[in-house]
Every structure is written in C-alpha cells, then in structure tokens.
Amino acid sequence: MTIPRAPDRLSDDMATAIGHAVSGFGFLEEALKRAIFSLTRKGLGQDVSEKAMRKWLRRMEDIADDTLGTLIDSFVAAMKQAEVADRHILADELYRIRPLRNLLCHASWRKGREPGYWHPTFINTKGEHYPDDMSPDDVLTIHADTLGTARRVVSVMRATGIDGEWAGWDDANLDNTEAPR
Fold first, then answer.
1. Residue 119 three-state SS
2. Residue ranges making up the domain that contains 43
3. Total number of domains in the chain
4. Is the distance from CB of 14 to CB of 139 less than 8 angstroms?
5. Is residue 120 within 8 Å of 107, Cβ to Cβ?
6. Would 43 be classed as within a structural domain?
7. Would you state the pLDDT for residue 2?
8. How far is it, in rounded angstroms, from Cα 148 to Cα 167?
C-alpha cells in the first residue's frame, strides 16, 4: 500500500481562519477552567474544612490538563450543582462546539469541490466522517460562535463573584487592553 501524497497547502485565508478558531478554542478552555474554579469554590462555602479544601485544590490542579470535552462535562456538572438558571442552553452550545474543536484541530485538509473550499478528512471516535467542504467563512463562523459561548461561560463565572486570575493579564500589561469579558 502506498502512502497518499502530502496534503495540499492551505490557502492563507483558510490557514488564518483555522488558526483563529483554534485560538478561540484555547480561550474557551481557559474560560471553562476559571468558571469551574469559581463555581466549585463558591459551592464549598466559607466554612470549608481543611480536608475538603485540599481535595478541591487537587481537583483544580488536575483540570489544568483536562481536554475540552472533560472541561465541558465538569463545567456542566458544576452549573447543575450551583443551580445556574438556563444552564441547558449553554450546555447545548458547548456540546455543539466540542466535535467542531476535534474536527478543526485534528483534520487533514484536501481541496474541496468548489474553489476556496476545503474538505476536512477526519474520522471521529464513532467512525463518522465530516461530510461537508468548508470555506474560511465557515471556520470564522465557528470561531465567532466559540468566542460567544466563551463569553457566556465567563458571565457564569462572574456571577459567582469569584473572578480568579487570567494568565497574562496583570498590572504590567503594557498594551492597556482589558481582561477577557
């Protein structure tokens, strides 16, 4: 059996769109970690035992390496425990994004049927192929949807009153931009 030729070089527009989408998934992961921290810390209450605090701190260390799928499951469980209103809507958005992240991060790309379109060659854990060609605009829509969902996750976090710290956002931030909202 011969190995197929290397994939075609992505157009600059498609490569840029995928890069932005992957960056958006990274921000979503960071937002989920912060929200899990805030929701679960608030759930411990003020009079938490030392043993419970140690157990919680170990779990917070573990989530640093969790995958997006595991973070989504943990966040949805934390929202349920905290009785966050309309959590099913945000959970549905997160579950919709999850396979798109796997697709964009793990696919090999071939030229699509139409000019400017690309086909992701990726088989998920259920053995399913992604059926459609994608354009840079399709990928940028996924990016925008991901950032919108991440903003809703941050809103849940902020509602706890426990913001936590955002990596790279400190008093020495020279560009004077605001921390993520």
1. strand
2. 24-159
3. 1
4. yes
5. yes
6. yes
7. 64
8. 20
Identity of the amino acid at 143: H
Task: Spell out the residues 6+ positions from residue 103 whose beta carbon is closer than 8 angstroms to its own.
Answer: 120, 122, 124, 130
110 Cβ neighbours under 8 A, 6+ residues apart: 7, 8, 118, 119, 121
The pLDDT assigned to 83 comes to 92
Going residue by residue through the chain (181 aa), what tens digit of pLDDT does each one get?
566 666 678 999 999 999 999 999 999 999 999 999 888 887 777 887 788 888 878 887 878 888 899 999 999 999 999 999 999 999 999 999 999 999 999 999 999 999 999 999 988 888 989 899 999 999 999 999 999 999 999 999 999 888 766 666 554 443 444 545 4
Q: How far apart (Å, rounded) are the C-alpha atoms in residues 48 and 31? A: 25
Residue 112 lies in a domain: yes
- CA distances 46 to 82, 83, 159, 161, Å, are 15, 18, 17, 13
Residue 145, domain member (yes or no)? yes
**Cross-strand bridge partners of residue 119:** 110
Measured on CA atoms in the order 118, 119, 121, 123, is the torsion positive or negative? positive
Quick one: CA torsion of 42, 97, 15, 144, rounded to 10 degrees? -70
